Amino acid sequence: MLDQAMNDSKTKQLDALLQNYLDLGAAMYGGEAVTQLEHALQCAHLSLAAGDAPPLVAACLLHDVGHLLSHQSPKSSDDPDDHHEQVAMIHLQNLFGPEVTQPILMHVNAKRYLCAVDEQYWSDLSQASKDSLEIQGGIYRPKQALEFMGLPFAKDAIKLRQYDDLAKVPQRVTPQLHEFRPMLEQLLLA
Ligand SMILES: [Fe+2]
Known about the structure:
Blueprint: H1 2-24, H2 36-49, H3 54-62, H4 65-69, H5 84-92, H6 98-117, H7 119-124, H8 127-135, H9 142-149, H10 154-166, H11 181-187
The structure holds fe (ii) ion.
Residues 39, 63-64, 164 line the site of fe (ii) ion.
């Protein structure tokens, strides 16, 4: 009985989470030419097309939910970083396990890692992404890069980051948000 009530509550929270994308997802994605919702769908579609496991596809879909919801977090006026990966963690950790939430939490630092190990990666970043990199702490030093790769879920976070960088193509056709819902429901914590 109690288990059923908990499950119903999580399902409702999932619906509310997805509703945020419908209500707020028309906002543009930073300085890019796609909306937040288009960006999320493109990122998840790239992961799906690569044959990734459902938790990583889900992480790709939800990785920037913190951008949608960052106005709900305490933010000081002298800090230009919205810490959207931490905001996402606050909203998702009750619903999904670490295989979904950790790549999301680490996707900002994955960019700092990739810039440290691949100069071409840095030069290929959009100007908006280069600008946010500085706000997010800049390129990792070699020791930091090594430590990052030693963390659980680092490889998934890097994959997510690479899809993230590609998920900025105007008018690209993707699955719709509701098509991801059954997969997300399967991943809900008991
Ligand atoms: Fe993103």
